[in-house]
Every structure is written in structure tokens, then in C-alpha cells.
Amino acid sequence: MDAVQFGQHPPAQRVIVHLSDTHLMAGNAPLGGVYDTAANLTAALTAVERTGIRPHALVFTGDLTDLGEPEAYAALRSAVEPFAERLGAPVVWVAGNHDERPALREGLLSGAPTPEPVTGVWDLQGLRLISLDSSVPGWHHGDLDQSQLDWLREVLAEPAPLGTILALHHPPLPSHLPLFDILELRHQDALADVIAGSDVRGILAGHLHYSMTGTFAGVPVSVAAATCYTMNLQRPAVAVNGMDAGQSFHLVHVYDDTITSTVVPVVEAPTGEYFTAEWVAAMARLTPDERLEAFSRKR
Ligand SMILES: [Fe+2]
Ligand SMILES: [Fe+2]
């Protein structure tokens, strides 16, 4: 059924599915000898499709492959492209520290295997999405060089009708895990300077392998966990390691006046059947007062 409005906010204007850190390996070799990254990606894509959402874009915020192998990019492309086609959504590939720019360009973008940053601008029916490349060839920490910042400043000089969302791999936020502060996005002040006063409304990132939110220069930042493996945060920060559980993706709903980021766990579990499309349709036939009476009043 079409979107209904039972509350104060009109339905979201745009919806983005945000996935991260697929870390595919050539020949689907187990990552770290443990993780089946292809199977875990398939599980995540299946879960996205189950939502029934027709997103305006699918954004993968980096570490698309673990070692930058051409065969891994090919496997990723053949898993995601038919899926994106079914959903009718463009795919935004963001480079991460585990990626190799030339192989990413050739394997996912059908471009020449050149080493310059992988950036792009998408017009999602008035919502602008800008992908940045925070990878530093040869290193795992992140950075944005002056020419990329200058480019970003130039693009942002002209505002978009529904504002702008940035996507990059390394989040411009601290992590409570010491290991990630070594691999942080460096020179964050320079990025803050560029987005100050611009129409940037949200920042999507990955890299941490766990979901996290914060603000950067007044802009909300949403970090999606990984599809491959996640960090077991039940441990003390100094002893956090990966586990084959807790994978999730985010639904980013862009409203008139706010953006929400909803974490969707990729999990199989017995689920109730009380709320249905028919139930919502029945609610839609009631007046707002009748709806409160029918569903809000305590019995
Ligand atoms: Fe990663
Ligand atoms: Fe990363």
C-alpha cells in the first residue's frame, strides 16, 4: 500500500539503504580463515529485499573487498547489480582502506584502472549524494587531500533542493576502541571547515564494523556496521575483536526536516503476525481520534 501518515510528519521524501564493509575475497576464501563474506552479503541483500522498500539509492560505504582483488570486485558486482536492478536503485560504491582504487574502478565502475580518488555526485530527485574517497593508498588510516576538499567545496557552493548527504568510509568521529583511533580519518578540521555553512544534512560512513552515531561540525553522522563480520562490543574496549554475528544495515529516511537512520539486524527469528497491511489499511479508514481510541487507549 502507499505510504500513510498517522503522525505529525509527512512520509519520508527519500530512502537510502546503507550497507558497509562487504570485504569480499577472491574465490570466496574465508576472511581471516573464518568468515564467509559472500554468504553474509547474500544474507544482508536478502534482508534488504524483505523490507519491500524501493530505495532511491543503495550506498556501500567502503571496504568493498578485503584485498582489492579483481575477482572479488567481479563477485561483488555480480551479487549486487541484479539485486539493485530488481529494486530499481542506483548503487553508490565508496572506496575504503581495504580497497585498491585501480581495481575498484575497473571492476565496479568499468573505468580505466587509474589511482585517483573514487568520488561522485548523485541527484536522487533533488537530494544530492556526494561520495568521497577517504582511502590513502598503501595505508589503513583515512585522509582527504587538498584537491578532494577543494572539489567538495566547489560542489557544495551550489545548494541542492533537498540538501546533501556525504558518504565516505572513515567516519569523522572518535571511537571508544583504541585500535580505530590509529586508523582514524586524519585532518578532520579541514573537512569541518568545508562543510560549515553548506547544505550537508547527514554523513554516512563505515569502517568500524559496528553501528554508531554522533555529530560532526553539527551534522549527524551515521556509521553502518558491516555485512561481513562485526565487532563484539561486549568486551572491554582494549579486547574487542570480530565475530560472525550482529551484522546489520541501515535504512536512511530523509524527511523534510530531519533524517533518521534505522539499524536493521540481519537475523532469522520467529516473528509475530499481528500487524499486517490489512491492519494498517483498517487504521487508515479511521479518523485520527478513532485511531487513538482503537490503538492508543489502555484497556
Ligand atoms: Fe572494514
Ligand atoms: Fe575500513
Automatic annotation (TrEMBL):
GO molecular function: cyclic-nucleotide phosphodiesterase activity; metal ion binding
Iron listed as a keyword: yes
Coiled-coil annotated residue ranges, if any: none
InterPro entries per record: Calcineurin-like_PHP (IPR004843), CNP_phosphodiesterase-III (IPR050884), GpdQ/CpdA-like (IPR026575), Metallo-depent_PP-like (IPR029052)
Pfam families: Metallophos
Residues of the Calcineurin-like phosphoesterase domain: 16-210
Annotated keywords: Hydrolase, Iron, Metal-binding
Similarity comment: Belongs to the cyclic nucleotide phosphodiesterase class-III family.
Protein name: 3',5'-cyclic AMP phosphodiesterase CpdA
Organism: Microbacterium invictum
Lineage: Bacteria, Bacillati, Actinomycetota, Actinomycetes, Micrococcales
